From TrEMBL:
<keyword id="KW-0282">Flagellum</keyword>
<keyword id="KW-0472">Membrane</keyword>
<dbReference type="Pfam" id="PF01706">
    <property type="entry name" value="FliG_C"/>
</dbReference>
<keyword id="KW-0969">Cilium</keyword>
<comment type="function">
    <text>FliG is one of three proteins (FliG, FliN, FliM) that forms the rotor-mounted switch complex (C ring), located at the base of the basal body. This complex interacts with the CheY and CheZ chemotaxis proteins, in addition to contacting components of the motor that determine the direction of flagellar rotation.</text>
</comment>
<dbReference type="InterPro" id="IPR011002">
    <property type="entry name" value="FliG_a-hlx"/>
</dbReference>
<dbReference type="InterPro" id="IPR000090">
    <property type="entry name" value="Flg_Motor_Flig"/>
</dbReference>
<dbReference type="InterPro" id="IPR028263">
    <property type="entry name" value="FliG_N"/>
</dbReference>
<comment type="similarity">
    <text>Belongs to the FliG family.</text>
</comment>
<feature type="domain" description="Flagellar motor switch protein FliG N-terminal">
    <location>
        <begin position="16"/>
        <end position="115"/>
    </location>
</feature>
<keyword id="KW-0997">Cell inner membrane</keyword>
<dbReference type="Pfam" id="PF14841">
    <property type="entry name" value="FliG_M"/>
</dbReference>
<keyword id="KW-0283">Flagellar rotation</keyword>
<dbReference type="Pfam" id="PF14842">
    <property type="entry name" value="FliG_N"/>
</dbReference>
<keyword id="KW-1003">Cell membrane</keyword>
<dbReference type="InterPro" id="IPR023087">
    <property type="entry name" value="Flg_Motor_Flig_C"/>
</dbReference>
<keyword id="KW-0966">Cell projection</keyword>
């Protein structure tokens, strides 16, 4: 009798979304500690977590225990030496070699440290940011959008004149290394607009990946127009952007009905291989749209496979993505925001 009562509760606990887990944990932390944590979270994620918080009318004890236990397990599994290592190494280099030499070495070893300007831009509303940069040279706009969160960049790009959008995306897509002169000019613009004054240095950028992320957030018509215009100048670049635009983690954006349609087209041996390298959200999305028996069989298949080559996982994921694209092209599923699907 007891086990029959406990089973549904345990099942419900497993369905807690990432945002709800974060919301529950922050609510239990209290206002002061929660505010400190949220300083390190992107504005978009703060909004998502805030929405989840607002939707919690009461904190269910079992859910709360589940979240705390998961958090505790995650902390226990972390190597304590990994906490703050980058900050420690950067300080060590600058203390030993001075700001200039130590900072340069740290950048080579650890990668560029995010500048105050770029951190400041994260908190600027898209409409305000669009007004700030709309009259700047397209190259300055492109550099700015390439360095902020892609979701925010998409919103800003939508607000810019249509005749500028194609040029800006093309400039982003062809970026590799941004020279000091261009970063210096951007520094002057941001210093004037935001009243911040740290020095910006040249940075390496994967332009095609940045462009793909930004275009992902645009409407279908704008997306098609921009990709068509990019293809006129560089067909290979357009194809690379399209390939980068839809990755395996994007499956979480497909509606449940769409996922169910997709699963019907995916062979049984392909799915466990593809999910071996997938994130937890994607796994939950897939497993949540399968029958109990099919779910158990899939989990068993994944566990029985043992270690697999990354190349095999990537090949399986690519094949599933191709199936998803085919279904989208025929109008059966929506890849974008989990909208309505058609049968």
């Amino acid at each position: 009798m007891d086990s029959a009562v406990e089973a549904p509760a345990a099942s419900a606990a497993l369905t807690i979304s990432g945002c709800e887990k974060a919301a529950l944990l922050l609510l239990m932390m209290g206002e002061t500690h929660a505010a400190k944590v949220l300083r390190y979270v992107s504005p978009e994620d703060v909004e998502r977590i805030g929405t989840a918080m607002a939707g919690i009318k009461r904190v269910d004890n079992q859910k709360a225990t589940q979240v705390v236990d998961e958090f505790h397990d995650a902390i226990e599994s972390e190597n304590s030496l990994a906490v703050g290592v980058q900050s420690y190494v950067r300080k060590l280099f600058t203390s030993a070699l001075g700001e200039q030499k130590g900072g340069a070495l740290a950048n080579r070893v650890l990668g560029e440290e995010e500048s105050d300007e770029m951190n400041s831009l994260r908190w600027v509303e898209p409409g305000t940011l669009a007004d700030m940069i709309k009259d700047e040279h397209p190259q300055m706009i492109a550099i700015t959008l390439a360095h902020i969160e892609q979701e925010q960049a998409s919103k800003v790009l939508k607000l810019l004149p249509e005749d500028k959008q194609d040029d800006i995306v093309m400039r982003i897509a062809t970026m590799k290394t941004i020279p000091d002169a261009a970063m210096g000019q951007l520094q002057k613009v941001l210093k004037k607009k935001l009243a911040v004054s740290t020095t910006l240095k040249n940075r390496n950028v994967d332009g095609a990946a940045a462009a793909a992320g930004i275009i992902n957030g645009l409407g279908a018509d704008t997306e098609a127009r921009i990709l068509e215009n990019v293809a006129k100048s560089d067909e290979e670049l357009s194809a690379r952007i399209q390939e980068l635009m839809f990755v395996f983690s994007n499956l979480i954006n497909i509606s449940d009905k769409g996922i169910q349609l997709l699963l019907r087209e995916v062979s049984a041996d392909l799915l466990p291989l593809a999910l071996k390298g997938a994130g937890e959200e994607v796994k939950e999305k897939i497993l949540g749209n399968m029958s109990k028996r099919a779910r158990e069989m899939l989990v068993d298949d994944m566990e029985s496979k043992g270690p697999v080559k990354i190349s095999e996982v990537e090949a399986a994921q690519k094949e599933i993505l191709n199936i998803a694209r085919t279904l989208a092209e025929s109008g059966q599923i929506d890849l974008g925001t989990g909208g309505d699907d058609y049968v």
